[in-house]
Amino acid sequence: MKRKNKTKRQQILLEFHNRVIADCLQTRFTSFGVGGAEKIRELDVTVADFDGIKYHLSNVEEDKTKVMVSISLTYYHQLAEHGVDDFLAAEYGDMFQKEAESGFDATLVVDIPAQAGKADSVVDSVSKFKRNVFAGMFRKYFKLQQGGGDGADGHPAMIQYRPQETMYISAFRDRVTVVFSTLFSDDDDVIFGKIFMQEFKEGLVKNRTAPQVLFSHKDPPSELANTPGALTGDNVGYITFVLFARHCEDGKADNTIDLIHQFRDYLHYHLKCCKAYLHSRMRARSKALLKVLNRAKPEAENKTRKTISGKSFVRR
């Protein structure tokens, strides 16, 4: 009998937390556990993330045992309209500061000695600061859907997460739709993007519990046809996720938020990986063909001749 080799497709998921924040906090909790407050080092780190997000990690008034984590988003005011501040206050409790650090939109303060008993959960939660900023808005629309839509049909939330790219969220009686508008940098990305979206559509055939994924090129989907600011053009694409009640219910909502809040970054990351892989294969193939051509070359003809007396001459 012949053994069938089954290959599994591996998809690279971007981390839902910020690795720098996690490492900085974990190091300080570990240092405090080993030698107390004297072993904790001062902190002043600025970190960049996707979509123009910036973090600042520092100490509170030179107190090394208190770590201040601040986040800056150009579109935070749009998220704030959907109760994000209240969600963060409920999620982080005393760590959430009513007044953010100057130049930033939201701030957390981690008291290392006070939180030492639950260090792992604190590190995990704080390192997901960006994710939880988005989670407040998603939670609002999930509850609207569970309440029957509550008049939210046709009134999407608009979050302009990049200068020319927007995310739209709408709550209907039977579903929540999340639409990403994105700009492709060149024509090749449009082709790769269509292929990538086709894979998502095929995923629904294999897994009936997956959300429906729609892709439209150049023009916005019908539900955004009259929405102001909706872009059109050859390099514009719209990706629509149709989330049903099973994706928004308690126990499933957290995983849905984890995956969907950074879909734009996930998409463009994989597009770049595809292009890099194709370029590497093309270079390897070209190198192999050059070797074949070099082996096929005839040996260089020796044009030097000698006369009977031993003198050399070159035939021209």
Gross CATH architecture of the largest domain:
2-Layer Sandwich
Helix content: 40-55%
- Given as residue ranges, the uncertain stretches (5+ residues, pLDDT < 50) are 1-9
CATH topology of the largest domain: Yope Regulator, Chain: A
Strand content: 15-25%
Topology order in helix (H) and strand (E) letters: HEEEHHEHHHEEEHEEHHHEE
Number of helices, where a helix is a run of at least 4 consecutive DSSP H or I residues: 10
Number of domains: 2
Distance between the termini: 67 Å
Tell me about this structure.
41% of the residues lie in helices and 23% in strands. The chain starts with 18 loop residues before the first helix and ends with a strand. The protein has two domains: 19-127, Yope Regulator, Chain: A (2-Layer Sandwich); 134-273, Yope Regulator, Chain: A, CATH 3.30.1460.20. The longest helix has 34 residues, at 263-296. Mean pLDDT is 85; it is low at 1-9. The chain has a five-stranded antiparallel sheet. Strands 1-2-3-4 form a four-stranded antiparallel sheet. It is flat, with a radius of gyration of 28 Å. It has 316 residues and is of the alpha+beta class.
Characteristic terms for this protein:
disordered N terminus, alpha+beta, 10 helices, 23% strand, 41% helix, Yope Regulator, Chain: A, five-stranded antiparallel beta sheet, 2 domains, flat, four-stranded antiparallel beta sheet
Question: How would you summarize this macromolecular structure in one to three sentences?
Answer:
41% of the residues lie in helices and 23% in strands.
